[in-house]
Amino acid sequence: MSTNGFSHEIFEESGLSLYEAIFDQGDTLDSVASEWVNMYKEETDNQTKSLLSLINFIIRVRIYAHIYKEGFEKDDEIPTVLEELQDAFKKEGVISYGLRDAILISLIKMFLRTGKSLRYLYFEEIDCSHFKFNYTTITNVDLVLPHKVSSKFKRKTIDGLIENIKENPTLTTLNFVSIHMGIKPMKKLIKAFDKSTALNSLGVHNFPLGNKSGKLLATYLTRNTTMTSLHLTGKKNIENIGLKLGNQLTEVLSLEKNVLTSLDLGFNNIGSQGGIELANALKNNIILTYLVLRRNNIGPEGGLALAKALCINTTLTLLDVRENHIGALGDTLCMNTTLNWLDISSNNLGQKVGEALADAFYKNISLKGLSLQKNSLGPDAGKAIKEALCQNATLTYLDLLSNGIDFEDFLEPIQVLASIEETSVSIEEALVSIKESSKGPLQLNLQQFGPDIASNIFNNLLN
Question: Per-domain residue ranges for the chain?
Answer without folding.
Answer: 1-118, 411-463
